[in-house]
Amino acid sequence: DLPSGPPHDDERSGTPSGAAAKLRPANDDFNDALVISALPFIDRVSTVDARTSHDDPPSPEQCWSGSITGGQTVWYQFTPSENLRINVSTSGSDYDTNIFVFTGTRGNLTLVECNPIPHSMTFDAVAGETYFFLVASGEASGGKLVFTVQLGVEVGVTIDPVGTVNPSTGVVIITGTVTCSRPAFFELGAGVQQRDVQASHGSLFAAGQCSGVSPWQGEVQGENGRFVPGTAEVSAGALFYASGGEERHGEAAPTTVQLVAQN
User: Fold this and answer.
1) pLDDT classification of 96: cutoffs 50, 70, 90
2) For residue 142, with 0-12 CB atoms within 10 Å meaning exposed, 13-18 middle and 19 or more buried, which class applies?
């Protein structure tokens, strides 16, 4: 079963034993990667005194977001008990970070993913596989790191089978629902095309907050003629923005909608 429990929130900071002595993060080295035992997980730690190791992996060429060597790095590890879609985020940190995910062993690591969006990354994890998360500062200095691992947001879009049309103006109202596994803001676009009575097409835009199952509604005016009562083909897709900077796209299957005249 999916591990559950309260977020881990571990504050670690340097404690000088002398004028120049400072404490490095406990997970500064690969061998000391902090084990993530349950999701959601959050860790707050200062990486100012973190270092890179001589055998830290070189910066992968496909990771345009930055380098590994030359900055401060810390390590985490997670082994899911079932296949999961995971979101990893450093949103809330006070310095620029680069996130890398590896499998394998020290000195023989294979890159799984790196962050295409600053401070956020989502990937599909396989049950029983151990994933090592490396957070690096690249060429910049370290700082206050906020590291979060949580389930990726699952999203969906539906279109209601009945809409309305104003016979005098030809304006159509289309409705439906958006679904998200955790709160997110959505921006939705839909296309409406009518062929059976009078050829006409148009598009609409809707936006709002999604929490669980939430309704959406939009108006569309025909671009090459008025809509009339009858059937229309509607397609819709939405972009969802969840916490941690995660972005997901959801799309509804094209739907035949009956346009009913407004009273």
Assistant:
1) confident
2) buried
Q: What are phi and psi of 244, to 5 degrees?
A: 80, 5
Q: Please report, for the chain, how many H helices and E strands are present, in that order.
A: 0, 16
DSSP annotation of 244 reads G
- What's the burial of 224, exposed, middle or buried (CB within 10 Å: 0-12/13-18/19+)? exposed
In the DSSP assignment, the letter for residue 32 is G
Listed residue (93, 87, 101) closest to 57, CA to CA:
101
Average confidence (pLDDT) over 18-42: 84
Residue 150, CA distances (Å) to 78, 145, 240 in order: 11, 16, 16
Q: What is the pTM of this model?
A: 0.77
Tokens of 184: 């997110």
CA distance 50 to 68: 13
